[in-house]
Specification:
Order of helices and strands: HEHEHEHEHHEHEHHEHEEHEHHHHHHEE
Strand order of the largest sheet: 7-6-5-4-3-2-1-8-9-10
Number of helices: 17
Radius of gyration: 20 Å
Low-confidence stretches: 1-5
Largest sheet: 10 strands, mixed
Structural class: alpha/beta
Mean pLDDT: 95
Helix content: 25-40%
Number of strands: 12
């Protein structure tokens, strides 16, 4: 059956910020012990790319983005809560007129400040301004080699522009890292990408799988299937010695795991040498450009927004929102499907909540797991996700997928 063709706005208008979200009256000891160490802050939803895998469907600014003064107050609150690092993102952060003022204020308050960018237009002037403001590192997105990168980013020439941005940042004295989405278009180019990073002296490489949210939910064929991890993980692990030799530190994203035979290599930087449960609302903070607070910047706004800093203090939202408390309270009883029966259930608790919720409309079961794919393979089975309900076409939206368990040799459409 041919795919259903829909006419969706490339950059839909975001709705105004959610208001009057409920907060609990009490603050528990666990809510005081959990502190936001790392914040990812979307300072604008405006963007100069049209990425086919963009979960926020970025393009247009939100209708009610924070003013400079409101941003400065939020920065003060983050510093008072003990945030150590703030990563500014978009959309595209440099499209906000006061982006360097925001960076400078983060640094003035004693926090590290980094940025993640598509790198379409980090000019020499922008790079120098960022350096002067105190920006400490920029992660540029490279999603495959030129053809696949430009296809994913929706703009011809975006690959060359990203490389030019890397050069401009390096000339300005700002260290550069790279982040890469792993999907059907990009994963075979990882070895060549690593060589490109070594050539351009990137200091780190973050890898994560494309998640079916936003525009990525409109084109599920670009996603890996769970059984593809049997090929992808050995490939990533095989790159680690060359990365170390080239001075590139490899960091797997939170949705890349879990507990397979390469986990100790991929997460050697972690205190226990392996990942754990989702960090949303436990050590990670997500902020939207209109002041909406979430436990993780990637989670769907409608389902995971905990409050807005124009109505409540950051501390009150962090400590008293049930949506931010969710990961602090989750137990194995909240897991379902394979994850509910897994040997690692209490340690992992289904890994990345963003992936599970984007697929099934609720967290607690995540088929994108190397250990799980290996277990299914050992039984002569594999799992496949199939889109059953289209996403509506709004920022941070999702579709609905069905999980199919089938014989390993199934001739299903890839």
């Amino acid at each position: 059956m041919p795919p259903v063709v829909r006419s969706l706005p490339l950059a839909p208008h975001a709705a105004p910020a959610l208001r009057d979200l409920p907060l609990e009256d009490n603050v528990r000891p666990i809510d005081r012990r959990s502190r936001p160490i790392y914040a990812v802050w979307e300072i604008t939803l405006r963007c100069d790319l049209a990425c086919g895998h963009c979960g926020s469907r970025a393009g247009r600014a939100r209708p009610d983005e924070l003013t400079t003064e409101q941003c400065f107050d939020l920065i003060r609150q983050m510093a008072e809560m003990g945030v150590k690092e703030v990563t500014v993102i978009g959309g595209e952060a440099y499209l906000r007129d006061d982006w360097t003022d925001i960076i400078a204020e983060v640094r003035r308050r004693g926090m590290d400040c980094t940025m993640t960018s598509g790198g379409r237009a980090i000019t020499k002037e922008r790079a120098r301004a960022a350096k002067q403001a105190g920006l400490m590192s920029v992660s540029i997105s490279l999603d495959g080699l030129e053809e696949s990168h430009d296809q994913l980013r929706g703009v011809n020439g975006s690959f060359k522009a990203a490389l030019a941005s890397i050069q401009n940042l390096r000339e300005a004295g700002i260290p550069v890292s790279v982040n890469t989405q792993i999907n059907k278009l990009s994963y075979r180019h990882l070895p060549e990408l690593l060589e490109l990073m070594i050539e351009n002296r990137a200091h780190a490489w973050q890898l994560q799988m494309t998640v079916p949210m936003g525009r990525a939910a409109d084109d599920p064929d670009i996603m890996l299937q769970p059984y593809d991890l049997l090929e992808v993980y050995p490939q990533v692990a095989a790159l680690l010695p060359r990365a170390k030799e080239g001075g590139v530190r490899v960091f797997p994203g939170n949705n890349l795991g879990y507990f397979g035979p390469y986990e100790h290599l991929l997460r050697a930087h972690m205190p226990r040498g392996h990942g754990g449960s989702c960090g949303a609302g436990r050590g990670t903070l997500g902020i939207e450009a209109d002041g909406t607070i979430k436990g993780c910047p990637s989670l769907q706004t409608e389902d995971w927004a905990g409050g807005n800093i124009l109505q409540h203090s950051l501390q009150d939202i962090w400590e008293r929102s049930n949506r931010l408390r969710y990961m602090r309270d989750r137990t194995v009883k909240d897991l379902w499907g394979f994850c509910g029966t897994c040997y690692y259930a209490d340690e992992c608790r289904s890994g990345c909540s963003w992936m599970g919720h984007s697929l099934f409309g609720k967290p607690g079961n995540n088929p994108y797991c190397h250990h799980r794919a290996l277990e299914m393979d050992r039984r002569g089975l594999r799992e496949r996700v199939v889109l059953k309900e289209q996403a509506p076409g709004l920022p941070f939206d999702r579709g609905l997928f069905e999980l199919v368990e089938e014989p390993r040799e199934a001739n299903a459409a890839e």
